[in-house]
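Reader question, answered in our methods column.
A reader sent in the components of a multi-part assembly and asked whether the whole thing could be modeled at once rather than chain by chain. We filled in our standard form and ran it. Here is what they sent:
COMPLEX SIZE: two components
ENTRIES:
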Amino acid sequence: MARHFSDAELSAFLRGELDEVRMEELAMALETDGALAERLERLDLLTVQIREAFDPVMAMTVPKRLSEAASRASERFAADNVVSLADARTKREGMRYRWTEYAAIAASLALGVVIGGQSGVFGPASDDSGAIIVGSPDGATVASPVAAFLASQGGGETQQIAGLGLARASISFRDSESRLCRQFSIEAAARATDGVACFANGKWAVAAIGTRAIEGGEIRTANGEASAAVLTAVDEMIEGEPLDAEAEKAALGALAR
Amino acid sequence: MTDNESRDRQLIALLPRLRRFARALTGNMADADDLVQAVIEKAIGNMHMWQDGTHFDRWVITIAKNCWIDNRRSARVRMPHDDVSERLDLIGDDGRETVEKRAEQAELRRAVDGLADEQRAVVALVIIEGFSYRETADALGIPLGTVMSRLARARATLMTQLGGN
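And here is the structure of the entire assembly that came back:
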């Protein structure tokens, strides 16, 4: 394959008269050969003229509707998510957030974003205190006190987490990738947050979350009583049966090693 | 939210360029601005898909190309008219040379507007936006050789229309 291109060949290309094979070779060469690209450009008055013909568009005043739409970008993006989270909280049935949506929120709001403590806080935070779920570049993970709880407490056990409420471990199971996953709830005065998280790469990645109102002050969290969103997620994710107490203990023990 | 603010700024800074690209694709400023509006919405909605460290401008331009292709399918009858000259009236000095040049530019824009959509997309990406042939091939999902041949045909058409200069 000849790597050299004569001016005649370059001109032929510009006139649309270079054969296909040679044209493809030229395209490949232009990818890496800056000098060749410059030669082509020098020969190519038309390219310069076309650019000049459209450049005046850049000098035109940008309509207000466009600059406003663009300048509202981050603000509106953040606001949309606050609204959707608020909506979720007002629903009796919890709303399900898939991992991808958390990833979206996390990526867009960037560092230090925290989703929902029981106070309904949603916004930037310097640490994860008061939050159940934390956005990170890797996706949504549970906040560190929740992670510590999930790594240590067996099914049915509870633990008070400051600023959040009463954490309660529900079932443990393996997903299709054999990751250890746990369903849990965190119960505050009138509302419980249910979630399911799977352990991978040293973190509990949140697969689904939902909230529900707690009626009459009575708190019961058998597996059958959790946000529909979380129950559906568990049904979809679980491979086989939930782990029994012994298997769960072994799995948790393995995490610590 | 420093990060978001910086994306706002990047998006705003990109608007003139985005409009130029959109004008080249759509053939008139009204459709171009509608396209840009759609691109802004889409870019905001998909901001999480933009990877830090990649070219934000390329990413947005690619969204614009996609939006244009999608809109084209809705088969709106395009009414080409050159409104760039109209709106650009009286920018700069108005010597005879400028007037002539402006007329030439308007003629060239009309010629580009008249190209087949596939060719115009390649012209807009390669010539106006400065994408490499490889980047253009990837953006349009076509082989490298097709980019070259479309570009060559576009140039040939334009040169014929402009009297072989």
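What stands out: Residues 15 and 93 of chain B are 25 Å apart (CA to CA). The mean pLDDT of chain B is 82.
Send us your own complexes using the same form.
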